[in-house]
Amino acid sequence: MPGLVIPFVDLKTQYQAIKPQIQDRINRVLEHGKYIMGPEVEELEYKLASYVGVKHCITVASGTEALLISLMTHDIGAGNEVITTPFSFVSTAEVIVLLGAKPVFVDIEPDTCNINATLIEAAITPRTRAIIPVSLYGQPSNMDDINEIAARHGNIPVIEDAAQSFGASYKGKKSCNLSTIGCTSFFPSKPLGCYGDGGAIFTNDDNIAQACREIRVHGQSKRYTHTRIGVGGRMDTLQCAVVLAKFERFEHEVVRRIEIGNRYNQLFDTVNISRVRQRSDRTSVYAQYTLFVEQRESRQRALLHAGIPTAIHYPMPLNEQPAYKNLDSAEQTPRALENAQRVLSLPMSADLSESDQNRIIEVLTSC
Ligand SMILES: Cc1ncc(COP(=O)(O)O)c(C=O)c1O
């Protein structure tokens, strides 16, 4: 019989550590009653922009909405192509298709699972209007090379899908400050999460920021004047209040995540279990801790029996998904296909204890 179950993402321990701050923040919103665009929205945007080191932060309803609005700021639509990775959560490609554009999937690096920058140039056509690299599992892609290719081809905007990488860095710069636009998610299990849906867009470009602010409120430039097509894309005040409370502990959590991720790395290397590699010029925030394993299903069962939940990020590349495979897209992405068969994510949180980590390794080495 399983012993105690190790949470896949431990939000309960986190809540216990910041309960008074969360309750105080929520109570303040209940008292002032400004549930939409209340003062917490601006406070959060200011704090997150300073943390990331960019001029503008625009909070939005989710990470998906952040990506959608970012593409809308560049009027992307029918006849356009957007280069991205097939090895991601579906939102990354969904927003492209929703706008009537075509996703062009470029294969991944087998060891990091991030888009392979050396393959991007060959995928660029006169119709290419954006590139969306995903900072998968919390580790940015090779952003210097991607930005350089984009600049050389007429300044194609680069939109970092940083849904999993808030708090990570690349050559000393924070994720979300690595390209034209950075988009993150505050989904509860993300490195910085709220208690529902939320997200944010980051940019140094004043015009893009202004367009994002208008698009998130139905394209409104002033009350009831709709100068562009927009969406109902605001993040509500209560969720901003939750992120503000969690943000007080965030730097500590990032340090803990990195320690825990690095400890996993050392332990797995010692027992020769293959894992996602981290590049030395990047600091992953380990949104997921992911291994490469054979006999995945039986290992998952053995782990579950021992009280260790696991997850697969992701079991099928996006260009193989039923809704996406017929999108007039002939791209072959063999590395993504291969990795989809062997990735396995383990419990990962800022509060994961050393003893739980040891238990996970013990079970994995014996199954
Ligand atoms: C890589 C990636 N992109 C986009 C999203 C979408 O974020 P949200 O769930 O906040 O819409 C996610 C969330 O799981 C994600 O992991």
What this model shows, in words?
The structure is a single chain. The protein has 367 residues and is an alpha/beta fold. The protein is 37% helix and 14% strand. It is built from eleven helices and 14 strands. The chain has helices spanning 11-32, 39-52, 63-72, 91-98, 143-152, 206-216, 237-247, 250-270, 296-305, 334-340, 354-365, and strands spanning 56-60, 81-84, 102-105, 128-132, 159-161, 169-170, 173-174, 181-185, 199-203, 220-222, 225-226, 282-283, 289-292, 343-346. The longest helix has 22 residues, at 11-32. The two termini are 16 Å apart. The structure holds pyridoxal-5'-phosphate. The site of pyridoxal-5'-phosphate has 15 residues, from helix 3 and helix 4.
Largest sheet: 4 strands, mixed
**Beta-strand residue percentage:** 5-15%
Structural category is alpha/beta
Task: Report the span from N to C terminus.
Answer: 16 Å
Helix fraction bin: 25-40%
Poorly predicted regions: none
Strand order of the largest sheet: 1-9-8-5
Bound molecules: pyridoxal-5'-phosphate
Helix/strand order: HHEHEHEEHEEEEEHEEHHEEHHEH
Return Rg in Å: 20 Å
Note the total helix count. Answer: 11
Shape summary: globular
Mean pLDDT over the residues: 96
> What's the count of strands?
14
Question: How would you concisely characterize the structure shown here?
Answer:
With 367 residues, this protein is α/β, with parallel strands linked by helices.
List the helices and strands and how they pair.
Blueprint: H1 11-32, H2 39-52, E1 56-60, H3 63-72, E2 81-84, H4 91-98, E3 102-105, E4 128-132, H5 143-152, E5 159-161, E6 169-170, E7 173-174, E8 181-185, E9 199-203, H6 206-216, E10 220-222, E11 225-226, H7 237-247, H8 250-270, E12 282-283, E13 289-292, H9 296-305, H10 334-340, E14 343-346, H11 354-365
Parallel strand pairs: 2-3, 2-4, 5-8
Antiparallel strand pairs: 1-9, 6-7, 6-12, 8-9, 10-11, 13-14
Bound molecules: pyridoxal-5'-phosphate.
Pyridoxal-5'-phosphate (PLP) binds next to helix 3 and helix 4.
